[in-house]
Amino acid sequence: MNQTDENHIIAILTQTFHDNKSTNFVIKQDKKKTKRFRTLIKYSIFYGEHFGEVFLSNDKTACYITLDSTKKKTTLKSIFWDLRLIFQCVGLSNVSKVLKREALIKANHPKDGFMHLWYIGVLPSEQGKGKGSLMMKSIIEKSKMANKKVCLETSVERNFGFYTSLGFKEENTIQQLGYALKMYALP
Questions:
Q1: What is the C-alpha to C-alpha distance for residues 181 and 98, in angstroms, rounded to an integer?
Q2: What is the CATH number of the domain that holds 35?
Q3: I want to staple 119 with a disulfide (CB 3.0 to 4.6 A). Which of 55, 63, 65, 124 is the partner?
Q4: Domains in the chain: how many in total?
Q5: 21-65 pLDDT, tens digit each
Q6: pLDDT digit string, tens, across residues 52-106
Q7: Eight-state DSSP code of residue 73
Q8: Which residues does residue 38 pair with via DSSP β-bridges, in sequence order?
Q9: This prediction's pTM
């Protein structure tokens, strides 16, 4: 991925997730919040490129990052990125709460292979034009071809109906984080 495409993805996801409860739970909340969020997205792009897929629409207004649970593994590079995330984004004082969050999410994921929809975003000026639906249909088709479930989590109420309209079923709601994080799956 070139730097221009990465910058587009960062811009899309920054605008889409800026006030998201789930991402704000992970990011240390201080005057460097925007810079920390950029680090989180760069981290996510790294993981998507190595263990899943990073997609940017041709018009550069929509994107997604997925992870394939069967491809994800620990490497020296992934350890480097994990440490970078801790020191540049999460902060040492927040590591335990973020690890708790990740353990709760992982406990709700299937034990066999699945596609994890980590991020999907459309620039606010382009929302409501069907771009998110098109990307979701592409993700669903790819998961069917790979014979894998699609799993995701969201804390954004307006997304609940969107996912259920695509056939996703609510599997669980995690309440222990101070906000409701709904877990969805599409068989």
A1: 14
A2: 3.40.630.30
A3: 65
A4: 1
A5: 999 999 999 999 999 999 999 999 999 999 999 999 999 999 999
A6: 999 999 999 999 999 999 999 999 999 999 999 999 999 999 999 999 999 999 9
A7: -
A8: none
A9: 0.95
Structure tokens that stand for 90 in this block: 């999460």
Q: Which of these, 158, 11, 34, lies nearest to 89 by C-alpha position?
A: 34
β-pairing, 114-122 with 62-68? antiparallel
Residues in the chain: 187
Instruction: List CB contacts of 29: < 8 A, sequence separation 6 or more.
Output: none
3-state secondary structure of 2: coil
What is the Cβ-side half-sphere exposure of residue 152, based on CA atoms within 13 angstroms? 25
Kindly provide the b/e burial profile for residues 42-74, where b requires at least 16 CB atoms within 10 angstroms of the residue's own CB.
bbbbbbbebbbbbbbbeeebbbbbbbbbeeeee
DSSP H helices in the chain: 3-17, 21-26, 33-51, 76-85, 95-107, 131-145, 157-165
Phi–psi pair at 141, nearest 5 degrees: -60, -45
In sequence order, which residues have a C-beta less than 8 Å from that of residue 15 and are 6 or more positions away?
121, 123, 124
Q: Which domain holds residue 10?
A: 3-186
Indicate the SS3 state at residue 115: strand
Quote the CA–CA distance of 123 and 60 in Å, as a whole number: 9
